[in-house]
Structures are given as C-alpha cells and as structure tokens.
Task: inverse folding
C-alpha cells in the first residue's frame, strides 16, 4: 500500500482499518480497468493516486468513517 494508504490506516479505527484492508486486497486481486488506462496515459504516480481514491470511495460506501480530504 502507498504511504498515503498507510497514513490513513494509522489514523483509522479498528473497524475502518479492517474495511480498508479488505477493500485494498480486493483492488489488488482485481484492479479496475481505469487504472491500466490511467497508468498508460498519465503515469504510475497518477495511477497510484487514482487507486487510493477508488479505495477510499469503496471503503466509504461500505461504511468506513474516513474524513474527506481538506
């Protein structure tokens, strides 16, 4: 997981950390096709930011309490 994902998990409660871990494993096993396109078009750094954004969105949809980026 990226340093951004690790920082988020360090601040998260146990339930949120568990949800983030499950969603992270799911994304690693079955990455969305948008990540391949982003990597080709904009590079690895942009694709990593996109992956973290997708991870946080899916975790929020599953009930994780993650504050929005300010």
Result:
């Amino acid at each position: 997981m990226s340093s951004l994902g690790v920082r988020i998990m360090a601040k998260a409660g146990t339930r949120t950390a568990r949800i983030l871990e499950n969603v992270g494993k799911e994304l690693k096993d079955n990455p969305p096709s948008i990540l391949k396109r982003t990597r080709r078009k904009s590079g690895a750094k942009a694709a990593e930011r996109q992956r973290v954004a997708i991870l946080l969105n899916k975790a929020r949809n599953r009930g994780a309490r993650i504050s929005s980026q300010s």
